[in-house]
Amino acid sequence: MIDREQVHKVAHLARLELTAEEEEKFTTQLSSILDYFEQLSELDTTTVPPTTRAIDVSNIARPDDLESFPDREDILSCAPDGDGNFFKVPKILSEE
Question: Model's pTM, two decimal places?
Answer without folding.
Answer: 0.47
